[in-house]
Amino acid sequence: MELQDELQRSKRVLDEKFFEAGKLRDESNGKGDQVVDLRAQVAELERDIDLVKSQRADMFREITRLRELMDMKTKESIDQNDRAKALDFDLQKTHIRIAETEKVIESRSYDVNVKTTALNENEREIGRVKEINNQQNVEIVALRRDVDRVSADCYDLRKGIEG
Predict the structure, then answer these.
(1) E strand or H helix at 29, and its extent?
(2) 75-117 confidence digits (pLDDT tens)
């Protein structure tokens, strides 16, 4: 029963981690799209710099900000990819634990079946021995009666001989 509970908990954890891994992949894909968009904006800003020299200082600050944002998003994307890999590894470990637990359950179920069969055979043997014991008790009672009767006859015969 304890292994069954552990198996169910492991399956729930596996399902939760699988769902979380999917969610993290979706977020990672979204962040990747954001990075692509940010790179496109940077290119557009660099073209605007060539065209409009008077706004160069403002545009430079904007490019710097966008690059930092892009780096931050890229770092977040890398971190999420690492987390997804870790979750995949955890999922594999959980699958292995589940398989091992299932093997233990199968083994113990087989042992229980073997022991149940042996118990049933032992109970039948005990019943047979009790029946033999009862029959022998009946025979013992009959033999004691015979011994008592013969002892009484011997007593009567001794009295008759002595008397």
Answers:
(1) helix 2-51
(2) 999 999 999 999 999 999 999 999 999 999 999 999 999 999 9
